[in-house]
Amino acid sequence: MTSPANLGGRPRQPSLAQLRAFAAVAEHLHFREAAAEIGMSQPALSGAVSALEETLGVQLLERTTRKVLLSPAGERVAARARAVLEAVGDLMEEAEAARAPFTGVLRLGVIPTVAPYLLPAVLRLVHETYPDLDLQVHEEQTASLLDGLAHGRLDLLLLAVPLGVPQVAELPLFDEDFVLVAPKEHWLGGRGDIPRQALQELDLLLLDEGHCLRDQALDICREAGRDENTPVTTSAAGLSTLVQLVAGGLGVTLLPRTALRVETGRNDQLTTGYFADPAPSRRIALAMRTGTARHQEFQEFAAALRGALRGLPVRIVKE
């Protein structure tokens, strides 16, 4: 490996594009996946990494026909490259926030069990109150959203809490109860005083693994005394499918109240029942990085969003 080239006696500096390319390869250990992540062609990516190696004067990768490995020097440089890129991201965020609040791009991540029911209110708020804000919505599961927030791909999240994740601050919006949804003529249909213990023996239908709503439903069932070995034989990728399975007589499910009208309003083969107080519930909040330069802006956005959601069947959290 050649030594770093000199320009006027000073070492040549690596570019951000080279660092971004190398950091992507270091994360994926795969050129095609790394190129797809950062929107660069594979030849350009390979060229950027090679140029970085030449600039630094060290071999960063061990390339074979089957795989890519980090050299010892590559492991050390990868950590530094990520730190530099994060610092540059913070710099850009600081500059954007300094220009003016509620302008520029806001990349909002939303979980699937919230997006269809709250986004109309969110979009209306942005359109009417923050017309200069370029809102970009990303619907993903919780783990993916948190990863996007940590790596700067997303700015703000709308999801169920608590998260218990370091460096993530939560701005609570509201609490909402869960409602039992069952096939028509089910013995619990129409009741307003269902004890949680009723969940112990019911045929319960849940979302697939990875959805936080599945974990919340299982927690509720454990609190109700349901045997953890009681099988959940059927699951679905979304709430709409889940409700159709219930209508088909395969079991019952739990829906958050914000989803109830949308998911059950068009199906006459369903019935609902409400739990006795205190009903099982979940809390929905905005989440942001603790060190974000837009902290004040996001707090103001949370306050405005609480006002916009008052027409929903929820209990707004007072801040």
Automatic annotation (TrEMBL):
SUPFAM superfamilies: Periplasmic binding protein-like II, Winged helix' DNA-binding domain
Entry annotated with the keyword Transcription: yes
Record InterPro entries: LysR_HTH_N, LysR_subst-bd, WH-like_DNA-bd_sf, WH_DNA-bd_sf
Keywords linked to the UniProt accession: Activator, DNA-binding, Transcription, Transcription regulation
Residues annotated as domain HTH lysR-type: 14-71
Keyword DNA-binding (UniProt): yes
MF terms in GO: DNA binding; DNA-binding transcription factor activity
UniProt cross-references to Pfam families, sorted A to Z: HTH_1, LysR_substrate
A GO CC term attached to the entry: protein-DNA complex
Similarity comment: Belongs to the LysR transcriptional regulatory family.
Listed name of the protein: Probable hydrogen peroxide-inducible genes activator
Biological source species: Streptomyces glebosus
